[in-house]
Amino acid sequence: MTSETDPDLEREVRAQIRELQAVIEKVSHEFSGHPTQEVRDAVQREIDALGNGASIVDPELNHGAQAVSEGKQLRLTDEGKLLADD
Asked: What's the rounded Cα separation, in Å, for the pair 24 and 28?
């Protein structure tokens, strides 16, 4: 038995990651230097507004919020990993 990946599912996942990437970029720019909790709240609010069921949870959410609070920019890789750039 072989398994094949559903091309529609792959497209949906890529589209969801692109939406999340845009949210992460927006919050990184708009909330750079703000308190960590404020950044966390903004990330959650923006992701919830997408309405696609996506989420970023702790500890990744907390680490990302802390990085933005410290003035670093976040980015989401095509694989869905959250990274902080100086």
From this structure: 6
